[in-house]
Specification:
Blueprint lengths: L7 H7 L3 E5 L5 E4 L1 H7 L6 H4 L7 H12 L3 E7 L3 E9 L5 E7 L5 H21 L3 H16 L3 E8 L4 E9 L9 E3 L3 H9 L3 E3 L12 H5 L4 E9 L2 E10 L5 H53 L3 H16 L3 E7 L8 E7 L2 H14 L5 E3 L16 E8 L5 E9 L7 H70 L5 H29 L7 E5 H12 L5 E5 L5 E5 H17 L6 E10 L4 E8 L31 H11 L4 E5 L5 E8 L7 E2 L1
Parallel strand pairs: 17-24, 18-20
Antiparallel strand pairs: 1-2, 1-5, 3-4, 4-5, 6-7, 6-11, 7-8, 9-10, 10-11, 12-13, 12-16, 14-15, 15-16, 17-19, 20-21, 21-23, 22-23
Helix pairs in contact: 5-6, 5-9, 9-10, 9-12, 10-12, 12-13, 14-15, 15-16
Length: 681
């Protein structure tokens, strides 16, 4: 028998599941009777016909299928219908063909779907929520909805205190505040954590460990299931549910999978939180190091105490996160011993005026007040809630300054902040001591320069005032000798000549002392000086006798320094050779060599004269020291002292090598280069 063609519309109306077609703007183009029964018949769009869809997994699934033009199968619960399964398939005109059928409770397919959906919601909660407690609140809510439980709770382990802390709860209220914090081994929850094994009972009314009390009777609770949340051999929490129906085998299988998902999610959430804390700590440490590095550079370059303290206060206030920071310090100079302070931040002046009293009450020790307004708190007069003070000690161990910080928020400073500031205070102490030492050195240098100027003036005036009467004595002796004429005998003439010689010697001595006092203190203009030409000029200025001969080595180096001082050194050494070898043929040689390892030139003045005994090699460099009696060789004994003083001021040294009757060689070293500019001359 031939079958007659059947109307498709009639077939769709007879189907036991809902079928509907929606346009791209969600307008319902067709809905069979079963679809209208399940979703409603009033409203132009799908969302108007069934507003409940917005709160199910169908909403996101349908939108995803429409946008990506992808066929999708999804399951969720419709409050008015129950558990449903839907398939969405894109149509050629940009809409969707949706088939929807109800899945009856008790089937294996429904249990698997609920389990998959619950685990998906748990994963979504643990992924999307910022805090662990918010995520676990969502998880317990999903467990109550999907497992038909009366109560769902999740505790997490506090490893530091070895207890369980309630982090998520949903369902009917439990009258057991003690269960918010449970120690291992206490109550059934603590036993599950300690033993690491699940616990199940379908007879709550007769089990006192899980709540045989008025509450369980009032709520008609029948079953309890508690599972440890385990990561390998480590317990991270406990999950528990109460149900008004016995827990069957299928639900037990679901609970095991749910416990595994929760344990993994909690562990990852904590790891993520720990990583963020570590990252924040590293970021904070990096910021602190940057501030400390910048502060270190500033402290090295800054030698003014007040400017240095201001920089320390600014940097330390940034490090602590304080709203106001102050540093009290004592200038501790002879001219100014007043207490001063540097401030940074809002309300700084008012803060500083109060802190002066605080520092007087508690000098030389660290103070931290977490809440100034708490009962019995010290220094309640402070205009802040949190307060921190760190002393700064000098090298002598005396507290010379104090860093003080305030914040309107209580407990703004902790042990880490205190340790950090202790390090800043130690660094600041060194810098402040160095700045004070620099200031003292600068004051001493200024005082020394003033003293030297006064000494120069005194020496000049003294030499001038002493030379005038000496010249008068010399002239007077000459006049007496001329007036007496032939009436003076030979002995008297010798005495007059001796008197004039002593006057000349005294004039030379005064001039030598003046020259010694000025040696090396006024170097004059620095220049490149050819050693050979300087030696020849010094020789000409000495007007040597015909018996003395000078040889200057070729290609002598250029020395950098004062031309006048170098000539003074050469004239004293050449003049000494002439002075102590009169009336004999004398040969003098000037030469030099490079000392590469010391970056120096070694210059020598060698003669073939009478020589110097070894026991006098050190003595001759002292003031007023001569080898011959002054009646025999006229000498002030100052020349070699001037040589050594000038050479040592240049960073060199001077010495002699000699033996009697084998001549003498005087050496001195001179730097081969100097910092700064030098003129050629």
């Amino acid at each position: 028998m031939d079958l007659e063609p059947t109307d498709p519309q009639a077939i769709l109306r007879l189907l036991p599941h809902g079928v509907l077609v929606v346009a791209s703007d969600w307008r319902v183009l067709y809905a069979n009777p079963e679809a209208e029964r399940m979703l409603g018949s009033k409203g132009a769009t799908l969302w108007e016909r069934c507003p409940e869809l917005e709160h199910t997994a169908f909403a996101s699934g349908f939108r995803y299928a429409l946008a990506d033009r992808t066929e999708l199968l999804t399951e969720s619960a419709l409050p008015s219908i129950g558990w449903c399964q839907a398939r969405a398939k894109p149509t050629a005109d940009g809409g969707l063909l949706i088939s929807l059928r109800q899945v009856h409770a008790g089937t294996i397919e429904t249990g698997q779907a609920k389990q998959a959906l619950l685990i998906g919601e748990i994963g979504d909660a643990l992924t999307r929520e910022e805090s662990l407690s918010a995520a676990l609140e969502r998880c317990t809510g999903a467990m109550v909805r999907n497992l038909d439980a009366a109560v769902a709770r999740i505790w997490t382990v506090d490893e530091h205190e070895q207890l369980l802390e309630l982090c998520g709860s949903a369902g009917v209220d439990m009258p057991e505040p003690a269960l918010r914090r449970v120690r291992f081994g206490e109550h059934r929850i603590g036993q599950i954590a300690e033993d690491g094994t699940p616990y199940l009972t379908n007879d709550v009314a007769t089990d006192p460990t899980v709540g045989a009390n008025m509450w369980t009777k009032r709520e008609r609770l029948v079953a309890f299931a508690g599972y440890p949340l385990r990561i390998e051999d480590r317990i991270v929490g406990v999950m528990a549910i109460y149900s008004r129906r016995p827990i069957d085998h299928d639900l037990l299988n679901s609970l095991s999978s749910i416990a595994d998902a929760l344990a993994l999610g909690i562990d990852r959430k904590r790891a993520t939180a720990a990583r963020r804390v570590a990252e924040d700590r590293l970021r904070t440490q990096a910021e602190h190091l940057e501030v400390l590095h910048e502060l270190g550079k500033q402290l090295v370059a800054e030698l003014d105490v007040q400017a240095l303290v201001q920089k320390v206060t600014h940097a330390a206030t940034r490090l602590t996160g304080a709203q106001v920071g102050t540093c009290f310090f004592n200038v501790a100079t002879k001219s100014d011993g007043r207490l001063r302070y540097a401030v940074y931040g809002a309300r700084s002046e008012a803060f500083a005026s109060v802190l002066a009293q605080v520092m007087a009450l508690a000098p030389g020790r660290a103070i931290r007040i977490d809440d100034v307004h708490a009962p019995n708190a010290k220094f309640s007069l402070l205009p802040v809630a949190s307060f921190l003070a760190i002393p700064i000690f000098s090298r002598s161990g005396r507290a010379t300054a104090a860093l003080m910080f305030g914040h309107d928020r209580p407990h703004a400073f902790d042990d880490t902040t205190e340790r950090l500031l202790a390090g800043v205070a130690a660094t600041a102490a060194i810098a402040m001591d160095n700045a004070r030492l620099f200031q003292e050195a600068r004051d001493l240098i200024a005082a020394l320069e003033k003293s030297n100027r006064e000494l120069d003036q005194f020496a000049y005036i003294t030499s001038h005032d002493l030379k005038a009467p000496l010249r008068g004595i010399a002239n007077l002796s000459q006049w007496i000798e001329e007036d007496l004429g032939d009436r003076m005998d030979e002995a008297a003439r010798q005495h007059m000549s001796l008197l004039r010689g002593r006057v000349v010697r005294l004039e030379y001595l005064i001039a030598g002392i003046l020259a010694y006092s000025r040696a090396a203190r006024d170097p004059g203009d620095r220049a490149h000086v050819e050693l050979g030409s300087a030696a020849l000029e010094a020789w000409e200025l000495l007007s040597p006798p015909d018996t003395a001969h000078l040889t200057v080595a070729p290609n002598l180096p250029e020395l950098v320094g004062s031309r006048t001082q170098l000539q003074q050194v050469l004239m004293n050494l050449l003049g000494n050779a002439i002075k102590y070898n009169p009336d004999r043929e004398l040969h003098i040689e000037v030469g030099a060599r490079v000392l590469e390892e010391d970056n120096m030139y070694e210059v020598f003045v060698r003669d073939d004269g009478v020589g110097i005994a070894p026991e006098f090699h050190d003595k001759i460099w002292g003031l007023f020291q001569t080898l011959e009696r002054r009646d025999k060789v006229e000498s002030t004994g100052i020349g070699l002292s001037i040589v050594r003083k000038i050479v040592e001021a240049q960073g060199g040294r001077a010495w002699v090598e000699s033996r009697p009757d084998h001549g003498a060689t005087f050496f001195f070293t001179w730097p081969s280069d100097h910092d700064g500019e030098a003129q050629h001359g």
